[in-house]
Amino acid sequence: MKKGFVVTAIFVVSTFIQLVSQIVITRIYGASLELDTFLAAVTIPSIIVTVVYGTLNNVLIPIFGEKQTKDPKRYESYFISLLFTLGILSLVVSIVVALFSFPLSNLLYPGKDSHFINTVSQQMSVLFFSIPFAVIATILGAYYYVKKHFYQFPVAQLFGSISNLCIIIVLYSIAGIWTLITGFIINLIFQILFVLPKQISFNHFKFVNIKIILLAWIPLIVGQFMLRSDTIIIRSYASYLPTGYIVYLNLISKIFSIATSVMTIGIQVLLLPYLVEYFAKKKYIEAIQVVNKAKIISIGMSIVIALSVSLMGPFAIDILFKGGKFTTEDVKITSSLIPMFILPAIGWGISGVFFQPLLALKKYTTIGIISTVSFLFALLSSFVTNQFFGSLHAISVGLIVLLFTGIIGSEIIWQINKKSLLKILSSRS
């Protein structure tokens, strides 16, 4: 509980810095075409970075934990070799995906003209080079989590957020919208510098076989990408709306998702390492009890936060965001969108917690299947809703279906696995 509180507190401060950054960006650029373009360009790269942070840790923590326990003498050299191997691989991947920036932009934003698409594709191709930095930072974070140093990586992310804010304030008058692109990438580089272990030698390394890691990681990447595709649904359908709606919808979704998810991130960070340990030691009763408590707490916290934000949101937006290029009319439009995000906000808060037991059991393929099905249902439901009720309703329905199909699916699979674990215990007794 103490560690969970400290980790949550660190993420709360980090989130506050991100909120300040959002306020500064909104006031500087307003609900402009320029900011709409950047938000469209950063959609896929930011999802990929989020997916890397949310999945690679889950794969590496069990592997690093086993390596450190079974072969502590070779653990450090294995860590360094894996760091370089995955780092180089991710650089190659970033180059490849950057080549597909234009067709991706064309596919995602059908409601926009060719000038918008061309600008988005140029910015997106640069933003894709954030991928290797995200991979390296996450590997370093996993290294500290396995050693039960839970504070190092969250603090690194905090200082990364601070560096991003400083870059925006200092460079916006010189570099314009490219300030946001620079800040996005330097944020990740700063995190790496903060968590780079000083006591480890980087002189000797060799490429390692990462087949096992990739087999575990790829289903998680697919699953998490589908689950995190809420941003795609929001901004893709926003492309049919007038200029500024990508900014309005981004602002509201950020406020809700950050507010609810930050309150449960401490639970997620602590839950996985302990579940891995409980399952390894066959302490299934303790694992089930911890899972039940974590879910109950996360549901309660998410509901309270979602309702609180919905009530206080209009006042907060008026006080914090109005100013500069963000006008009173922009505030009214943004506030009017709040009700459509209440249910998705609860989903954002609890979905990560509900997937934790399956991650600890290494049910990666199952998670990928659940998330893919959730995304396909969301696409279908949002498409049909858009035809009959318009883009805004399509966004709301798509988000609800995406998040809660994943939550329900993960809970069903967990209940099935829980019964199997209890049968194993009963057979032994």
Explain the overall architecture:
The chain is mainly α. Helices cover 85% and strands 0% of the residues. It has helices spanning 2-29, 33-70, 72-98, 101-108, 114-127, 131-146, 152-175, 178-195, 211-227, 230-238, 245-280, 284-320, 328-336, 342-360, 364-389, 391-428. Helix 2 (33-70) runs parallel beside helix 11 (245-280) and helix 9 runs parallel beside helix 15 (364-389). The model has no long low-confidence stretch (mean pLDDT 87).
* Proportion of residues in β-strands: under 5%
DSSP strand count:
0
**Distinct helical segment count:** 16
> Could you give the order of the helices and strands?
HHHHHHHHHHHHHHHH
What's the alpha carbon Rg, rounded to whole Å?
21 Å
Descriptive key words:
mainly alpha, 429 residues
Topology:
Elements: H1 2-29, H2 33-70, H3 72-98, H4 101-108, H5 114-127, H6 131-146, H7 152-175, H8 178-195, H9 211-227, H10 230-238, H11 245-280, H12 284-320, H13 328-336, H14 342-360, H15 364-389, H16 391-428
Helix pairs in contact: 1-7, 1-11, 2-3, 2-5, 2-6, 2-9, 2-10, 2-11, 3-6, 4-5, 6-8, 7-8, 9-15, 10-11, 10-16, 11-12, 11-13, 11-14, 12-13, 12-14, 14-16, 15-16
Give a brief description.
The chain is mostly helical. It has helices at residues 2-29, 33-70, 72-98, 101-108, 114-127, 131-146, 152-175, 178-195, 211-227, 230-238, 245-280, 284-320, 328-336, 342-360, 364-389, 391-428.
